[in-house]
# Entry
Amino acid sequence: MTCLKKLITILIISSFLYSCAAPGSAIGRIGIKGEILSKDVKNLKITFELPEDYGIGGLDKPSYHKQEKPPIELVVDKEGKFSGYYGVIYHVTVFLLPPIGAKPEIAPKPKLVMARFSDSKDEFYVMGESQNGFEYFVYDHSSKAKEIWKSGKVAKISKDKASWIIESGNFVKKKNQKNEDEWVIYLKIRKNRI
# Structure
């Protein structure tokens, strides 16, 4: 094989590897930490979910990876604090032969996270950062609202009528104890007095 043929073969293989996702090559962690500002909350659990397609490369299919990001249920302690991690969940989108390796080296910033509170299971909170800063929306997830959803309309609840108010939220990239980059979502939440 001539040098030119070897070079062309290497380029073809490299371009193929460059465009392929590498399933199973998880590299990131997502944490959630926060506090409930209301003092009279007992036995509260909050279930958090990331979008189904978060961290999936362009050539991956969401159905392959559904079980890798199960919802996490966090229990609020006596001081009103909660924290937990999804663990390692992100898949490499690009893999080049060494020494370049996997890209990106850190999971992308989550665009949004969803939450449900154990005392208001019919409410579904979607929160994330936008051009206007941190925002959240509340959706009705009751059996009555499911009929509205089927019709293609959104069953939203106004924030002043929702059970909980997300006072603040922040998506922060930080180093963990192993000096690895990770994203942590910090939340401050209070009970709505309606």
User: Anything to note?
Assistant: The chain has one domain: 24-90+105-191. Residues 95 and 101 are 6 Å apart (CA to CA). Residues 24-90+105-191 form one domain. The longest strand covers residues 164-175.
